[in-house]
Amino acid sequence: MKKKPDLDWIKNSHSVLPAGDWFVEFFTPGELHAHRALKVLETSASAFQKAALLKTSAFGPVLVIDGETQSSALDESFYHESLVCPALLAHPRPRAALILGGGEGATAREILNSPAIERVVMADIDHNILRFARKHLGAWHRGAFEDPRLRLLVQDAKKLVEHTSLKFDLIYADLPSPIEHGPAYELYTLEFYRRVKALLAPGGSFTTHAGPGTPLQFELHAALYNTLRRVFGIVRSYTAYIPSYDMPWSFLYCADRGPSPDVLKPAALDKAAAGLKRPLKYHDGRSITGAFCLPKYYKDRIRASRALITHARPMFFTTSQRSKI
Questions:
Q1: Active site residue 75
Q2: Among 75, 156, 169, 174, the one annotated catalytic
Q3: Short-list 67, 147, 139, CA closest to 115
Q4: Least confident of 9-13, 19-23, 176-180
């Protein structure tokens, strides 16, 4: 009889995690990431979503929404600077911005870091999340909710986009994942993006986060890219590695007129960043332009995709596969 190899580094399901409480995310049935949860600091529940603030040993406080890691105190700036700064620094005179979602207040914080910004409108549907953030996520928003340039609207971002006549130089989608029956999936459609484009001032841009940048979960990004290409003349993919997510996260920059951040010289972006009120933690000019250098494999995946997200044919997606395991 063939002897079984002695592979003591292979663990069974009963011994895979050390003793203690763990927040576990299954990205696929065969891949997981776990945070050791030392304490549940706060929770919030509404008709739209459930949130918890966990104290972890590695990342400090971690915000979890509907079973997904949203952001951590250690690396939230990696995500929020990546979402905001490429478009913010590329625009020659950004004055007005719109945030769709963004309940933590950190996206507003990064936009308001520019002294050129005169007005930011932020629309988030969930009053409980906003109240939760203002009270418990001070390390995230750093007083952004009290900035007189911010107008906070507790309402459906979709309805705002459909009915406002305001124009914006920068629009950002910082929304929850498009979960079935969730509050955000209708904001990931061709029809919605067409309306978003109508709110852009000349030379304006739209940026959205676009799901995981991993080969195991890349279908949302490719579908969003194809959908946004039906709306905008310029669509550029870029990524940033977010340690608390345990994966690179992807973004899409969209506009009709350039120059887009990927074609600007790093020195030009550094010059724009020097005018910010607070130095950036994660990005400089070179890291921004480098973020747009997508590997060939991913570019091939985008070209091969024929997915189109519409109101009639939405795409549902979550990084957390717990219910399927």
A1: no
A2: 174
A3: 147
A4: 9-13
